[in-house]
Amino acid sequence: MSLQTAGIHHITAFARDPQANVDFYAGILGLRLVKRTINFDAPDVYHLYFGDKAGTPGTIITFFPWPNSRKGKVGGGQVGITTYVVPVGALGFWEDRLKGFGIETTKVTRFSEDYLQFTDNEGLRLEIVEREAGANNEWSFGGVPTDKAIKGFGGAVLFSTKSAQTRHALEHIMGMTQIGEDQGYARFQTSADLGNLIDVPVADMEWGAGGAGTVHHIAWRAKDFEEHAQWQTEVLNSGYQPTQIIDRQYFNAIYFREAGGILFEIATDPPGFANDEAADALGEKLMLPSWFEPKRDQIEANLHPIQVRELEANKQ
Hints:
Keywords: Dioxygenase, Oxidoreductase
Number of domains: 1
Pfam families: Glyoxalase
InterPro entries: Extradiol_RC_dioxygenase, Glyas_Bleomycin-R_OHBP_Dase, Glyas_Fos-R_dOase_dom, VOC_core
Protein name: Ring-cleaving dioxygenase
Number of helices: 5
Helix content: 10-25%
Shape: globular
GO molecular function: dioxygenase activity
Structural class: alpha+beta
Order of helices and strands: EHEEEEHEEEEHEEEEHEEEH
């Protein structure tokens, strides 16, 4: 192992209702819809990206909202819990806000940190934790002030069917450092301020099933295109079968499935989400790669209209 990822680049999940998805992540969680595009492999489905003001790596959750898709089952071979981080002193604000929208929360403690756990409208498991590290989010929307706003990812909890092998991959392929164990979890750390703490239950978990309310993959950061190519070689030399390098317009990507069943992506930090629209207009219109542009009218006709809107508590 000669490379070290800085941490999470993005996490991608499945959903059903695109407007409900926007309402939850922009309207309730106050994130910015930084990109509305399509699933390049299934152009009749949105690919929606939510993050901080600029869509900085380490803040981005993305969704394929596929109406009428099956309900998934959270379990082994998936990111089990996506962790968001907020400024110190903001957890009470979020407990009150979620309660105001009728969202049930549970408090748990792990590695001496207090977490507020809940699910989104599709059943995706989320949690919020306070930490000093990481810059405050400059984006304010829907009654979420910048001093309370979600900074980005605190990390994630990986549910593995072969925990020992997943933990080995985090340390010896992705270059993370194991920093402790607590209550049946092993914790790994990366160098970034956000998306930098990864927890893995040490016990193997039963397989989950993909579908709405589950995570499709977790993407790790590569700092540039040169390092990205090195990652592809590193993964191959570690005994896995990475894909070819794929241009996703806003980053380049390779994918491989680690032994515990979790689909890993490695994504480049550049070029970013201002690659095809102005930074102050991110997410305002449907952006298509050049090869789909001639079919824009047909594609738009097949997509449910969506809008970013402010919500009132208990009036979703």
